[in-house]
Amino acid sequence: MKERTRGVYAISVAAEMADMQIQNLRVYERRGLVDPARTSGGTRLYSLADVERLIRIRDLLAEGLNLAGVARVLALEEDVRRLESDNEGLRRASRE
């Protein structure tokens, strides 16, 4: 899991992997949609999880959402993942 979240890709590589322009990645970062790691010199380093998120953003935009809508969908999807994890933990605890 840690390998998925470790920043290793330069912005140009991440943009190519997500099939989008570099300036889009900068906009998405400014809007809080992605948060790539940074080197001590300030260079952005994107992880595989970041690239997957960029692809999700691209797909949501292609479906007609604007950036505010994308942000809301991403937040709701994160809430669902957290709640599913919490529920699984409660199920395990109740079996023990």
Describe this structure in words.
This protein has five helices and two strands, in the order αααββαα. Strands 1-2 form a two-stranded antiparallel ribbon. It has helices spanning 2-5, 11-18, 22-30, 48-62, 67-95; strands spanning 37-38, 44-45. With 96 residues, the chain is mostly helical. The chain is globular, with a radius of gyration of 16 Å.
Helix content: 55-70%
Rg over alpha carbons: 16 Å
- Reading the helices and strands in chain order gives HHHEEHH
Number of contiguous helices: 5
Number of strands: 2
Shape: globular
End-to-end Cα distance, whole Å, is 26 Å
- The secondary structure category is mainly alpha
What do the pLDDT scores average to? 96
Beta fraction of the residues?
A: under 5%
Low-confidence stretches: none
Task: Give a short overview.
With 96 residues, the protein is mainly alpha-helical. Helices cover 68% and strands 4% of the residues.
How are the elements arranged and paired?
Elements: H1 2-5, H2 11-18, H3 22-30, E1 37-38, E2 44-45, H4 48-62, H5 67-95
Antiparallel strand pairs: 1-2
